[in-house]
Each structure stands twice: as C-alpha cells, then as structure tokens.
Amino acid sequence: MLTLAGGTVATALVAGCTEGTGDGNDVPPSEQGEPEGDLDDVANDSAPSADRDEWADVDTIELEATTDGWTGRAPAHVDGDVNPTLLLAEGREYKFVWTNADGETHGLALRNDDYDEVASTEMTDDEGGSLEFTVEATSEMTLYLCLAHGAEMAGGIETYST
What we know:
five-stranded mixed β-sheet; Cupredoxin; Blue (type 1) copper domain-containing protein; Immunoglobulin-like
C-alpha cells in the first residue's frame, strides 16, 4: 500500500533525476534521468543507526534534504545523522516525510536490490516544502535516495521479520 500527501506518487520503475525548473514545479518521472554514483556501497556498507528495540515504536521517518545529504530529523535516534541507515519491520506501514531545506531539486525514492523503485515522491525545488508518503516495508527495500543526486544523497534500508 502506498499513499501520498502533499503531491502524487510515482511508482513506475524509473530511476530519475533532472535539473530543477527553478519555479517550484515538480519534474515528472518521464523527464527524470539516472542517478549518479555507486549505490552498491550504500546498500551493502551501512549499519542501522540504532538497534531493533529503538526502532520498535517508529512509524514515521522524517528527513531533511540538502545537497549534503538526507539529514535525519525523526525518530530521535537519527536526528542530525546524514544519510542514516533505516531499520524497518517487514509488513509494517511507515510514513516518510521529507522537507526541502535548500531550494535545490530533490525527490525521495525507495529502491530494491536491482535499484528499481519501490516508491517515490515527485521532485521539487520548493524550499521549505514537505512531501510525504506511506509505504508498507518489504524485504526488497534496500536503500533510499534523492532522485536528483543519487549516491551522494542515499542511505541504506535494512528490514527484519517480526
């Protein structure tokens, strides 16, 4: 299940990035290109920022986007961490909320081992604007990234069975 507030959801299996329009408008997935960088390192070389007990009651993940990376804002144990690794329980719904903190073009996508999109938001350059979506965690989720900045704005996702 995937729902979105504050915009629409692009769930097509497209990777994407493009330069922003500069006017706050979103860039459609059909106009997005491939993210740059080596995503293998992101998916394979990360460890959760906290243990399973600290993630047990988490249902909302808040991130702030700048070209320096995704900065964790919630839950508390990722606050201030850049590109934190997320630990998600399979079958549980999570709300992802991200805020554009620098006015550059960003879009949040969750990917699987083949780097296909599992879920994503549109891209926007609206500084201070927030987008969110709710997704059920599955074992195929391995990383999240910015559609415009690829590996420089990416973090790992680990899932576990409950």
